[in-house]
Amino acid sequence: MAFFFDLFVNGLMIGSMYALVALGFVLIYKATSVVNFAQGDLVMFGGYIAAALVVLYKLPLAIALPVLLGSMIALGFIVERGVLRPMVGQNVISVVMVTIGLSQVFQGSAAMLWGAQTKSIPLPIPLEPYVIWEIYISPVNLVAALVSGVFLVAFAWFFRKSRMGIAMRATANDQQAAMAVGINVRFIFALSWAIAGLAAALGGVLWGNLIGVDTQLALVGLKVFPAVILGGLDSVPGALVGGLIIGAVESVAAGYVDPYVGGGTKDFLPYVLMILALMVRPYGFFGREIIERV
Amino acid sequence: MINRECGVYQTTYEGDMALYPLPLARYSTLGAVAILLLLPLALDSHAMSLANLMLLASIGAIGLNILVGYTGQVSLGHGAFMMVGSYTAALVTVRLGLPFWVGLPAGGAVAALVGAFFGIPSLRIKGLYLAIATLAGQFIIEWTINHSTWISGGVQSTLYVPTPTFLGWEINSEYRRYFMVLPVAIVAYVAALNLVRSRVGRAFIAVRDRDIAAEIIGVDIFRYKLLAFAVSSFYAGVAGALWTYYLKIANYEHFTLATSVSYLAMIIIGGLGSVLGSVFGAVFITLLPIVLVYVVEGGAALFGFKYAAIADFLANLRLIIFGGLIILFLAIEPEGLFRMWGNVKRYFRLWPYSY
User: Fold this and answer.
1) Residue A154 phi, psi (nearest 5)
2) Could you tell me which residue, B21 or B207, shows the higher pLDDT?
3) What's the complex ipTM?
4) Where exactly are the structural domains of chain B?
5) Rounded to a whole number, what is the largest CA-CA distance in chain B?
6) CA of B153 vs chain A CAs: smallest distance (Å)
């Protein structure tokens, strides 16, 4: 039983990191109806910038972090302005394809700027695991879960209370009505990309610390799809719940099933879960059901 | 092809419905086929291998265009369906000792079944959700093939296939392989052209344009969506099987998500909803890295760099240019190379008296 809880708790922590990446994804979809296949590559880019700042330019963490967050927010703005805005009103496949093209550009330029070999982001976190009731908890995972948690709570607050957050919700709900009451919808689009960049920057540092920074880091973005489908593509709480479920399920399944099938359950089971979810409940736990008319 | 349309009077419905109703179009099509047949006389072995790669890519791209461009079902799992065809062909040849012309349809048929199965979610979901569901299909198929030794037995999921023979004729050079691939490609091309102007093809287009409206006027959308998945995967399977016989090896690394993405790029750059466009796109995407190598190598030599020093740079530059081209095409010419070709044709139709 201790083995199960060990896997489960650590899975939940990994899941909270998925949720962080998923949040940026959901935010963009909610506000701009763009499915961002480049979210993982934004995370990778954030990780690369963090590694470059800390390792190559030897900046202390206290300076590197604001620089990183600032540059990722700027990147989000640039991407929205330069790439996504011309695509407004195009059909689904074009928009999907543009973000796929974007992901290729990110991968190529990250590797070109800072090299393809794996880098580590040293964070001042102890390596010794804590043991609570026979459950091993590594401090890195704990910090990651805490940061994700704080960020998600901050977001919930931002959406409920702040003026800008309410404007974003209004835009997501009905773009024309939002325009009619005087919300600058273009700015909201840009803002949601900037916030997605911010979430990706934090995700990049945390994931980069956990698995190392190279172009493989972008694969995290593909793992986010099961999470957001389970939770519902346009739901912020759904991103959290979906991320936690996927994290827990893949961790437990990997612990129990991997020895029998020779590994790789982690890369397989979330997608099976996703297909099942799509067949039973295509709009996820919290997603808004779309009613179509001719 | 460049056509002159004046002075053509059709007196029968058959004449009007013909694939190439204009005499000049017929001649230029025949000319194109003749050029394709005589190509080996003019090209060396390396150029022949490029031609083969383009033909192989064309078959896959035409298949994907039937699904995405004509039926409007976005698929990110095309690579995986090719993988199914590839391994099926390898197994048929290695385990049962059957020749390649049995392996080709076998690969296509098995891929069609698998494709139709992964098309089932398209009944309930579409657009983005379907793209994500087919992405799951890609990963599930990849994992299953990789992890079942019954299918992918051998080191690193690689199956080696003996040199294919046709009527005692060993297909062992690029020239001979060209004549293995070319007939399949031509059949695939003509079959697709005929499919999309038949009843089935019109149903596909109706589903693409407005599926609910199509259902109301009596198109069984579930059947046609599954059929589109099956046909598209059949093409993918045949293309994958040809890859196996072409390379004499079946390996999953040739058919990853990156493959699916590059096939999507082919049909978008070539032109969605156009058979000829798929071929344009396949040629473009196949040639892109090769031309890039020449250009960058030439530029590097000018400044005195060695090739080894720029190999990494080149790989990354390829990614950036590939992604950048997709973005550019979608922003500037969403209808792709086929539309550009059409513009050129339209210009010359009244040449030299164009407005």
Assistant:
1) -55, -40
2) B207
3) 0.83
4) 44-349
5) 67
6) 14
